[in-house]
Amino acid sequence: MIADDIIEYYLQNYQSKISKISLSSLCSSIIESWLCVDVDKKVIIFGQIHNHPNHPSCKRLKTSPIQGYFSKNGRIYVNTKNSMYELGLPHQDFAGDSKLFLEDDQELKWEKLTYWTE
83 near 66, Cβ under 8 Å? Predict the structure, then answer.
């Protein structure tokens, strides 16, 4: 799996208008303004977390490596070793090329976050 696989899957399966019948999400934590990149042969998602029980909304995060992804009722989810996140809207300036995001030796200050489910 590479980052482009997740991006393509998102674009093919995301429904911007979700019916009231399918409003409930499979998990509470949503990553908004996300970027999916390949780092050291692993797929990582950077973004802003919302509805997380231990972190304030809009906190920037970096997930642990993504191990899988799927959709249900028009929502897209990603799994890490111990967590599941719903993907909200991607970052507005991101077009699937990590070089666009990591240009000019930008210093990234993301908090690594793993949400432990019971």
Answer: no
